[in-house]
């Protein structure tokens, strides 16, 4: 019966120079964010706050590009690329082969590659390299230096998602800051950018940093609304942090008034994610 009532949740620089600049950029630590945006006292009682390291589950390593909704603009499948573009994609991926074994040689091969950067090429290569964050990031930096090309929101989101999946959060935050202060035009930062990182934190069960990331929206000039709050609740529940999601929902009634969808998200987490019918019935009675 419970399952029936649920709503489905729905100037050219060298690579080494650029890499050093990006990796050296400050990223918001948990303590810094808490100081900038104090969390209300109920947040301190989250069950995950006392963990010294994230607890990983077998399904944490889901494919962040093709089977995740971190960014809906997934790269076009290789079979739909034209022959010339597909050859360029293959050439770049081949040049970065065995990147971990000899990164210097791989970077040199990439620098000598005669492929022209384009949104389609970058999206396709990032899709192919999604499980090798270092090679993907090296290519991303290289593409950003190519004449006539600049990364769009889609390419930034793809790279941030890959970095988050591989737990490279500091580097991901560096790209967030780069999007915000883009020298080539207006800010590319959107609430969806932060939601990608929220989901990645939830995937490693770092609830504290997921909530801090939510409050970073204010720092970047966005006003978190009910849809953003639903995104946070959905991310928590999706990765089995249902108890924390319920606590967050109940503690924020004044800021985010209760809605049917809010309760359905948590109810879905108890029923379909954790499959704990007893907790679902308790939550249903409390509703």
TrEMBL record:
Start and stop residues of the PPR repeats: 152-186
One BP term from GO: RNA splicing
Lineage top rank: taxon: Eukaryota
Keyword Cytoplasm: no
Keyword Disulfide bond: no
Signal peptide extent: none
Keywords recorded for this protein, A-Z: Repeat
NCBIfam families: PPR
Record-linked PANTHER family: OS01G0970900 PROTEIN, PPR SUPERFAMILY PROTEIN
Designated name of the protein: Pentatricopeptide repeat-containing protein
Source organism (scientific name): Canna indica (Indian-shot)
């Amino acid at each position: 019966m419970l399952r029936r009532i649920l709503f489905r949740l729905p100037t050219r620089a060298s690579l080494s120079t650029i890499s050093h600049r990006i990796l050296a950029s400050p990223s918001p630590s948990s303590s810094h964010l808490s100081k900038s945006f104090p969390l209300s006292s109920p947040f301190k009682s989250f069950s995950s706050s006392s963990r010294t390291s994230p607890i990983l589950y077998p399904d944490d390593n889901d494919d962040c590009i093709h089977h995740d909704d971190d960014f809906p603009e997934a790269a076009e499948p290789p079979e739909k690329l034209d022959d010339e573009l597909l050859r360029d994609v293959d050439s770049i991926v081949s040049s970065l082969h065995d990147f971990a074994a000899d990164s210097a040689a791989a970077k040199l091969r990439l620098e000598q590659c005669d492929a022209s950067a384009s949104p389609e090429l970058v999206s396709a290569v990032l899709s192919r390299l999604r499980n090798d964050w270092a090679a993907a990031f090296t290519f991303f930096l290289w593409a950003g230096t190519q004449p006539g090309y600049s990364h769009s929101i889609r390419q930034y989101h793809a790279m941030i998602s890959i970095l988050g999946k591989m737990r490279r959060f500091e580097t991901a935050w560096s790209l967030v800051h780069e999007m915000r202060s883009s020298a080539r035009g207006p800010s590319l930062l959107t609430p969806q950018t932060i939601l990608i990182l929220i989901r990645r934190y939830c995937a490693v069960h770092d609830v504290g940093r997921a909530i801090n990331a939510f409050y970073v929206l204010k720092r970047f000039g966005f006003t978190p609304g009910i849809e953003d709050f639903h995104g946070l609740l959905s991310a928590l529940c999706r990765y089995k942090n249902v108890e924390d999601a319920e606590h967050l929902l109940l503690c924020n009634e004044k800021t985010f008034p209760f809605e049917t969808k809010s309760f359905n998200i948590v109810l879905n987490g108890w029923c379909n994610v954790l499959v704990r019918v007893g907790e679902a019935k308790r939550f249903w009675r409390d509703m």
